[in-house]
Amino acid sequence: MVRRLVIIGAGMATGRLLERLLEAAPQTFEVTLFNAEPRGTYNRLMLSPVLAGEKAFADIMTHGPDWYSARGVTCRFGERVTAIDTDARLVSGEQGSVPYDDLVIATGSTPFIVPLPGAGLEGVMAYRDVEDTQRMIDLGAVAGKRAVVIGGGVLGLEAAAGMAERGVDVTVIHNAGHPMNRQLDAEAGGLLAKALEARGITLCLGAASQEILGDSAGHVRALQLADGREIPCDLLVMAVGIRPATDLARAAGLEVNRGVVVDAQMRSSAPDVYALGECTEFEGTLFGLVAPLYDQAAVLAQVLQGQEAAFRITELATKLKVTGCDLFSAGDFSEGLGRENIVFRDPARGHYKRLVIEAGQLIGAVMYGDTADSAWLYDIILEGRDICEMRDVLMFGPAFEGAAPLDAYGGRCSLTA
Amino acid sequence: MTSLSEGHIDRSPRKGAGGGASTCTTCPYCGVGCGVIATPDFTAPTPRVEIAGDTDHPANFGRLCVKGMALGETVSTEGRLLHPQVYGQKAGWSQTLDLVASRFAKTIEKHGPDSVALYVSGQLLSEDYYVANKLMKGFVGSANIDTNSRLCMASSVAGHKRAFGTDTVPGTYEDLEEADLVVLTGSNLAWCHPVLYQRIAAAKAARPTMRVVNIDPRRTATCDLSDLHLPLAPGSDVALFNGLLAAIAKSGAVDDSFVETHVNGFDAALAAAQAVDLSVCDLDAGDIATFFDWFCSTEKTVTVYSQGVNQSSAGADKVNAILNCHLATGRIGRAGMGPFSVTGQPNAMGGREVGGLANMLACHLDLENANHRDAVQGFWNAPVMADKAGLKAVDMFEAVGSGKIKAIWIICTNPVVSMPDADAVKAALEGCDFVVVSDMYATTDTARLAHVVLPATGWGEKDGTVTNSERRISRQRAFLPSAGESRHDWDILSDVARRMGFSGFEYERPVDIFREYAALSGLAAHLGRDFDISGLKDITDAEYEALQPVQWPVSTVKTGGRFFGQGGFFTEDGRARMLPVTHRPPQGKRARKYPMWLNTGRVRDHWHTMTRTALSARLGGHLAEPFLEIHPVDAKALGLKPASLADVTSPRGTATLRVLVTDRLRQGEVFAPMHWTGETAPTGRIDALVAPIVDPVSGQPESKATPVRVSPHSAAWYGFAVSVHEPQAGTRYWAKARAQTGWRIELADDKEPADWLRFAARLLDLDPDSCEALTLFDDASGLWRVAFLRDGVLAGALFAARDPVAVARAHVVGQLDQPSGPPILAGRPGADMPDPGATICSCFNVGINTIVSAIEAQGLASVDAIGVALKAGTNCGSCRPELQALLSTSAKKEAAE
To answer: Which residues in chain B have their CB less than 8 angstroms from residue A399's CB?
Structure first.
């Protein structure tokens, strides 16, 4: 029996879900896919390379119209969903409603706009989608433009670096002492700050925004900081975080905390209604990185087929997609009793790596400058392997794993035994 | 390197590839005296010298050991003293020699001739040696000239003289090949005289019935060749050979007619022998019986002995115990039989011949024989002949310490390292009024203490003759210009003699000295001495230049050959003497405080105090730090882990050495090499522990039986470093060696540096600001690594840890001066880059890991198969015993699996 599956939102998690589901059970579901953006799934992570001019929009589309039509997916792109009726098992869109046997809410997240005075001015924006990206690209098309980015996290820095690449004079306002403070320790953050400044980006660290100032036409003209400094700008990008987009779910009466509450099978509080992606909250945790969302998608694909599967949270890893700023962090790298650091430094090349060991296991890694071995280290963190035997070469990657034969006495002296 | 190894060698100079001529000369290392062909290439930025064995030289027939093969790497002028140095300042020759002459003259005038001394060397050429001896004994009028041969050969000299009347080595090297039984005693021939070892090995391979017995407390590399190893208790040789003499008598192996005709003292010697208690040897009774049986039943027997016999408070008696057995059986001076002392230095024999020892005159004449003295005085036209024996080495430095000797001139030797109680020698020189040192380097432990350092020429620059262990005189020829202002030792000595107002030192060339010396030997022969080269007294300059290796005597009566086959001993009555000798244990006492015996000796790839061998990276790669061999049971009891450090303490001093756990030696005994110095490993100066106990007859120190205590040396950290610059270490323990492109150093210290990066920069002599500094710090586990790159090339690296640091040293050393990056700090090669391991074959630079993996992967079953696969062991062959050991280990491993 064909089941009617309705999905709200065509983000990356949905893309993965559909791939898995339609590959495994191509005849089981009749899919209707709503998306507020007027397009199907694209790799949102690749917006930054697009902004930087390294890729075109076309390059990052992962699921174009042909993909959906070949698989019989009914696409309702550019159409907002207005309501969900869980009793009637009906989803209403701007163009009419559709019944479902199974519903997946994958509404994603919305950027958080800091409620500063002037936040409503023209030229104050977030960085979320293709349109936002295009707006920043357009700014760079005119010489001498200035931008302020509030937020020195991954997204803010990618926006800043992309605009700087396009010739915009960019200042980043960040409240902590070093950029990406949630992903990097102070030393790696310092190296990153230096690298960003080297590409012409001005960093205001430890800075608090006070007010966005506009001109007579109601367009942003500057950001005023708490210390009184005014930073002139033609565009102000807020990149201070995201909030799960939960309005629809909440209105439908689903259990919503900060996100739509799901269990390990991605079930919401209503029967046959699932949630997926950045809009979800699982065991009190919200999700903003793609890896766990892909995990969710894989779990949900199985659950929808009646198979047993359970989502669980793993350690997260971060990379920054700014060319020349290779960095990586994973796991827990805060200082603490019983935590031991192995630190590699190559100041001349601006390379820095820190591995955090606890009880003989690698629990965290911060790498700046050279992240070639990050995947290998990430696996070691995830697997919880005992690293005692390889501790002295752990820093240098899998090529040194499994000791090469050493000299007499394990190479501990200059003798031949 | 072996381009000239085949075919007849024209000894006249000819052009080599690099424009330099090929020169036939003699190796400057051990007493085998191998012929070497050196071909310098002056077209290179620094002259390179190609080295090959001389196929025509009767000592080696083209073979060379690894040290000889590497000679070309040791002739650089780097680090050489290039001008005279007075009180640390550069000075001119004339003013310097005036100073030396006047200080010696004034000292003699004020305090008498015995207030001055010369301490010389078995590495001097005979011509140098002759002039030194002539100056002291005939013109200064004191016999206070002794030589480092005292530490090496004096017991053999004494033993020979007591038995034969003269210091005569009866046989020739061919005897070693023609023998049916070769008894090696106190001789690690495989490492110390590798070419003789190979000659015996080749003979044994061709004639497998030949037997080899190795008598040595340690199971050395030489055991690879032996059919029977007798690991006797240290110092029990006299007992063993007394037991043998008794067995000879019992078995009827005595040559009655020879004894009857040519030997005195048989009965007394036998009676003493029969009183022996063999239990002191601590040997298996069956093994002893086998040895005795083989000896008694084998006519063609040669007994080879070296430092293990000589360096003993009973050294002379040991020699005589051996000689007794050969005299009783008449096995002497005939093909394939005889006692055979092999010397440690290239010209120990020459030194003995010219009278370089304090108790000899010249040409084997006796100082205390008035006829001999008169003859020499007349010949020299000498003003004041010394008439009594001078001070032997140990007494000489004690006299320096007590102020009796107020001026000493040390030539071509490093007593601050090599003498027993070496720290006392150091203190004595520090307190001496006037110390002159002639050397190639002003940086030796001894030269550092000199008021005047005279730059002497070295091997490759010097010209003259040496005599090897089989009495063969060979030419050392110059093929390089003298470095800087350096001068030949004979020339410096003659110049000082002339400045002191003495005539008879107007030599212009070595041949002038040689002719005089040969003429004097004719006089000696008339006085009944063995040493006679009077056949060469009229040698022309051109003949001397072209002189072929020749075995003495060279006279109208006899040329070359063996001695004593038909008797003809150089005693008053022409008969040999057998001496009654009795076992005397080493004089030191093992007691609760010092419960172990310390034995000392050589390693394969180094020679003496390493002034030359330390210049070669491939020689340094075999054993790049000093060590203490200790039995596993002892190591365990003392809590000594392999590769940890140990303190070895005697009442005289303490050394800190790397622990090498091995069952090659007996429980309760330890072994340490004697090569390392203040320049290479200051805590490894093992002779600082050795007591100045000497043989009462020979004056030779007991270097192989010192009671010591061994304990773990705890350090806060251990390190290994490499640098393109010479490391500057100030740590408690360090040992540095050359690498192909720089240096390597082992370290340990009591306190962690506050800043490892700065510490490493200072140690490696690198400016951190001009380098890319890579660091890996793991403070919790105690791991600190620093590497410096210059323009992407590895300039230096330090690996430190709280325990002896695990680093693939050969790999890291190989990366020096190569393009490098962060993975160097891994301290081992990545999966795609095999680690060769420590060097086993120094000729072809083949590492232990390469060999072991080839054995395992290719199923190599013999040393020759390894040679085919890797070339290892196919050149000088010095590493063949080690290759054999690796094969055995790997076979055992396979069996266990």
So the answer is: 823, 830-832
